[in-house]
Amino acid sequence: MPHPHAAAPQLIHEAVARQARLRPSAVALVHRGERVDYATLDAAADAYAADLWAAGVRPGTVVPVRLSRSPRLVAVLLGILKCGAAYAAIDRRWPQERISQVTKLLKASIVVADAGARADVPQWIVPDEPLAQAAARHPEASPEVYVDGGDAATVFFTSGSTGVPKGVLSPHRATTRLFPAGGGFADLGPGRVMLQAAPVSWDAFSLEVWGPLTSGGTCAIADADYLLPDDLAELVASAGVDTAWLTASLFNFLVDEDDPARPCLAGLRQILTGGERLSPTHVARFLARYPDTILTNGYGPAESCVFATTHRVTAADCDAPGGVPLGVPVPGTGVHILAGDRALGPGAVGEVCLAGEGLALGYVGDDAATSAAFTRLPLDGGEPVRVYRTGDLGLLDADGVLHFRGRADLQVKIAGHRIEPGEVEAAARRVPGVREAAVVAVPAASGKGYDRLALFYTADEPAAPAPVALRRALAATLPRYLVPNHVRRRDALPTTATGKLDRNALLAFL
Q1: Could you tell me if residue 325 is inside a domain?
Q2: Domain coverage including residue 49
C-alpha cells in the first residue's frame, strides 16, 4: 500500500488501481482479440504480486522480466510494482550474452520468464493461464509495502560508451508526472485507444502502456515486432486504435507508404512522434492529408522519462529555419540552457539541461557516470537544482519554446534508438583479430539526421576476420539496432593533423 503521506497519483500501480475502482468494466487492454477490463487486470496483478512476494521479490530490488508483449506482461509488471520493487523489461530478441550482461548489472536474484527460458539466476515462471484465471485466485493477502513517488519503478536501457548497456533507474513519479488529471500533452483517457508497439526496454513503453492505463484509456498491444502499414491499419480497424507513438523514422516510412487507396494512417486522432529531428517534407505531406489529426513532436532522453518537452506541430513549422520546434516543458519538468554551469538567456545556444520530477535516480551500478551526468547547480541564484546534462545543444526562444541545435558529442539517434558509437567499437575490438575499430553514423539521404551505421576496422593477420564474419559476430552479441549496416576493413584508419581519428574522412570509404 502507499505511504500515508505519498500522493497516490504518483504511483504507477496505484493510479491503475484507481482506474479499476472508477471503471472496473472498462476495457484496459486489447491483444489478439482478447479484451481485458480494468477489474481483471488489477486483480490479476494482485495475484501475481502475492506469487512474486512468495518467490522473494522485495522492495528496493530490480526484477528482470523476459516475457513477450501481452496482457500477462502488463499484469506481471504491476505485480512487481505492488511488491515495492522495480522491473526491468528485457527485449526477448536480445542476444543471450547481452541478457546475461543486463542480469549481472542489475544484481538480480530472480528473473521472471516463460517456461524454457535460459537464465543465469533462479527464475519465477509465470503460470500459463488466462488473465481471468489469475484474477480469480483472490490471494489471501497482498504484500504490505510502503512506496512513494521517488522510489524506483523501472529500468530503461540505453547504449553505453563503455560497451555495457546503461540501465537508467527511473522512479514512479517520472512516469506519472506525464499524465496529470485532466490530461497533459495528449488525451489518453476514457474513450482513447493507444497503440503499444515499442520495444519493452524503451521508455516509450511507459508512454504506451502507463499513459492510457493511469488515465482510464485502453492500450492495444501489437503482435508484430516491427510495425508495418497493414499492421497499423488492422489495429485501427479491429481495436479502435486512435493514438500512436511513432519514431520519426517510422513516421516517415508510414507517410511514404500511406496509399490513398489503402491508407494506414487514417483513423488516428493523435500521433506522438520524435526521437530524431522531424522531416519537414514528411510532416507537410501528413498535415495536408490529415488536417484534423493532432501531430505532437516530443523530446526527451530516457534520463527524463519519455518527454521533457512537447510541441503541437503546425504547417508553419515546416518552414522554420531551425526545424520543427521541440516545444515547452511537460508537467513537473524544467528546461535550462547552460554554458558550463552558467545559465544562458533566450536565444543563446548551449547545452540542454533538464530538471524536475522526470529525472532518473541514476545509472544502475555506475556511480561515476551518474555523478557526471546528474549534477546540482545553483540556477537563477537560488537553491541548488538537480539537473541532467543531455549533451544536446539547443536554445529557448523568447516564448520559452525549446529548439534543437545538434549534439555536443558523438551520440546519435537512429530509428528512435540512442546509440553510443563507443559501445559498438568496444564490441568489435573484443572479436579476435580486430585491432582498431571506428563507428560513424551515415547521414540520411534527406539530409536530416542519420539512418544507418558504418564500422571501419583494422586487423592483425593471420586471425583477421572478414567483414561478413565480423558483422556476424557483432549480431551475436548486440541488439539488432547496434549492428552496423556497413563493415569495411582498412589497412589504417585516417587521422587529422593532430593525430586524432578523422571520422568525417571515413565516410568517403563507403
Answers
A1: no
A2: 1-148
What's the CA gap between 271 and 287, in Å, rounded?
Answer: 11
Give the end of a domain, one of 148, 165, 185.
148
Q: Would you say 196 and 218 are in contact if contact means Cβ atoms under 8 Å apart?
A: no
Task: Write out pLDDT tens, residues 118-128.
Answer: 878 889 999 88
Q: Are strands 450-459 and 486-489 parallel, antiparallel or unpaired?
A: parallel
Given this model, what pLDDT does residue 220 score?
98
Choosing from 87, 113, 148, the residue where a domain stops is: 148
Domain membership of residue 276 (yes or no) is no
Mark 349-385 as b/e (b = at least 16 C-beta within 10 Å).
ebbbbbbbbbbbbbbbebeebbeebbeebebeeeeeb
Tell me how far apart the alpha carbons of residues 317 and 144 are, in angstroms, rounded to a whole number: 51
Give the chain's mean pLDDT. Answer: 90
374, part of any domain: no
Residue bearing cell 474513450: 191
Task: Please give the DSSP secondary-structure letter assigned to residue 258.
Answer: -
Grid cell, residue 7, equals 500522493
What's the structural domain count of the chain?
Answer: 2
How far separated are the first and last CA of the chain, in Å rounded?
Answer: 58
- 378 or 214, higher pLDDT: 214
Q: Distance between CA atoms of 235 and 200, rounded to whole angstroms?
A: 19
Neighbours of 423 (CB within 10 A): 22
Residue 88: inside a domain: yes
* Residue 37 β-bridge partners: 27
Predicted pLDDT of residue 308 = 97
Q: What is the CATH number of the domain that holds 436?
A: 3.30.300.30
Taking the model in full, what pTM does it have?
Answer: 0.85
Q: Whose CA is closest to 402, among 346, 479, 340, 440? A: 346
Residue found under cell 481471468 = 132
CATH number at residue 10: 3.40.50.980
DSSP letter at 179 equals S
